[in-house]
Amino acid sequence: MKKVTEAAISWNESTSETNNSIVTEFIFLGLSDSQELQIFLFVLFLVFYGGIVFGNLLIVITVVSDSHLHSPMYLLLANLSVIDLSLSSVTAPDFFSQRKAISFKGCLVQIFLLHFFGGSEMVILIAMGFDRYVAICRPLHYTTIMCGSAFVGIMAVAWGIGFLHSVSQLAFAVHLPFCGPNEVDSFYCDLPRVIKLACTDTYKLDIMVIVNSGVLTVCSFVLLIISYTIILMTIQHRPSDRSSKALSTLTAHITVVLLFFGPCVFISAWPFPIKSLDKFLAVFYSVITPLLNPIIYTLRNKDMKTAIRRLRKWDVHSIKS
């Protein structure tokens, strides 16, 4: 009887150890199981990523090298390009590995970087909206309000809020027990999908994560809508020659804001999760938005186009010399 009891205890301990085993890596299911489709997606992503790198680096190099663009608006635009390039690089999918795996720590780092850059981008978009508000509604006070120290403070707040947001999001997942399934139905570590793999009830945690991101997103979007509404009302009372340039610049800003916040607000308000829509949004934020942002800002901004022409002429002269 004693031997039977000892055997039962030993079996229970081994079973408990198995059930509480720690997941050391996660497996990405990716975008498709079809090899042919993965090759097509690889070519498509490669072309898009090349455009992202070229477009965003062109904006950063142009702003840094041209003294005419050393103003808060264009310096904020350069920071936005750095963030877009970083986001697309962090979420770059793996198409050729048979086993698309990432370590547990690597997954946490990816979640941290995603929310760090995402939170910072929201604040920078708000800062760009505020910059346009001051430039159009209070032009005589622009140099006083948007001085060098104010710009440094804005950037410190932007990156600081991004850091705090990412830390608060990561705190939800870092101590969760992962002991069973480890397949993430995406091509990068998305916090809501990773949380669902935990060996515990995560309903309240899901709500907290949604509220954390949702509050930041909705508040940022509302602030931007209010500021752009005031700007548009101000432009209506300006002469047509002055309002046309302001409206052209403002249209580019509003387009970028809608591209960034529109899907976020929609998916937060939609009560029913849709896997295909989640994957589309993942592709949208990691590829489409970082590609469209430099196109929108360069094609609709005369100062940027003029600076790029000057940069090209300078390169041609330096090659000839």
From TrEMBL:
Gene3D superfamilies, A to Z: Rhodopsin 7-helix transmembrane proteins (1.20.1070.10)
Start and end residues of each G-protein coupled receptors family 1 profile domain: 55-297
Location of the protein in the cell: Cell membrane; Membrane
Example GO molecular function: olfactory receptor activity
GO cellular component term of the entry, any: plasma membrane
Topology relative to the membrane: Multi-pass membrane protein
Record field: transmembrane: 39-64, 76-96, 108-130, 142-164, 214-235, 247-270, 282-300
Pfam families on file: 7tm_4 (PF13853)
Keywords: Cell membrane, Disulfide bond, G-protein coupled receptor, Membrane, Olfaction, Receptor, Sensory transduction, Transducer, Transmembrane, Transmembrane helix
Chief localisation class: membrane
Name of this chain's protein: Olfactory receptor
Source organism of the structure: Macaca fascicularis
